[in-house]
Please model this.
Amino acid sequence: MLKFALIATTSSRVHALTGGIRLKTMPTSTAIYSTTTSSSSSSSSITPPPAKNLLFDLPVSNNGARTRIIMYKKEIPESECAVISVMDVGGFKSEEYLSINPQGKIPSLKCQTTGVTIAESDTVCRYLMSSYSDLGPSFQPDNPLSNEIARFHDMYLTTIQTCLYRAVPPFGIFGTRKDALKEYSKQLYIISNMMDDEGPYLCGKEVSLADASVFPSVVFASFMFPKFDQKELMDDQQQQLVPKKIEEWFQRMIDTDVAFQKVYEEISGGLAKWDEKGRWDTIWLAGLRDDEPDTLFDKILAGEIPASIVKEDDKILAFKDINPAAPAHVLVIPKDRDGLTRLSKSTPEHYEILGRLMVAAGEIAKDESLGFGDGARIVINDGAKAGQEVFHLHVHVLGGRDFNWPPG
Model:
């Protein structure tokens, strides 16, 4: 697996060890951000660089990084395109920046000669590739896989990448971090299966938009995946979350290509600052994990103890209580406890499973074949003093008789 150890910072440059190989020294002639600022933070105090185009970005942005790879590889002069911080115009939600990108995201590009603004990294990349086609590599080899890999990346990786660092779900279409992290690894494997076997780039001998798109996301994955509980994320067929072919390509880009190495250092420097501030200390499966002992329910889930199952899907299991407190008494549990030893342990990470438990309980409460009639009592005991005996969250669905209020 890839292992990264951030070891020093010199003149805002992060030097790193990657797989035991020390990174080369980067040229220092080009500043990443080149605005002229005064002591005031207002956008009116900013003097834009005298460049034809302004690229609004931040070093830690993996989507923005693909545009920078193209700029660095093509050696687009700063007089043509200058990279400035979005914070220099008041931040993502400032009126000035929203006039450039109404989504309030990065990167964005503004052509100062025409006033045209371009949002979204793929669109910015294609603008740079077209406008500066006479400089450096085209990034568009005669291979349709380049555009396909870039599209796969944008549809299936970028849309869920927040699972690696954001505090709470949702992460794209996924309501749980674990599902999103597994999908992220799966999509990396899909991309690895599309790679050219000879290389050195993803699509063969020429660098392409695919390389520029995927590389920054692998910086994220390689830095962040090791922070999470690996055994919770890998299936029986996986030995590592980042595929070996992508790992080898990634290392090769760092070792042999100055532009990719420069972007690696830019992103890693930003991620190191996140790390110093404890970004992952309170994130589920990273700083927070389920270390409580297994329970009786784990043996039921493993098939070691028989149960009369009435409902099951990929997330929940429902079975009859062996000590029923009513003619109809079913327990509904999450298959993955995921820290839910009791309801008071729930967090926004559990929005999805709590909803699924309630929907399943409601469906069971209508099932006359189980002895339910018109109405049911649905109970969650939270803690020993409330009658909870098994510390794996479970929902009691009781019916088949009248119930009193208040309960005992």
The chain has three domains: 31-136, 140-268+277-288, 296-399.
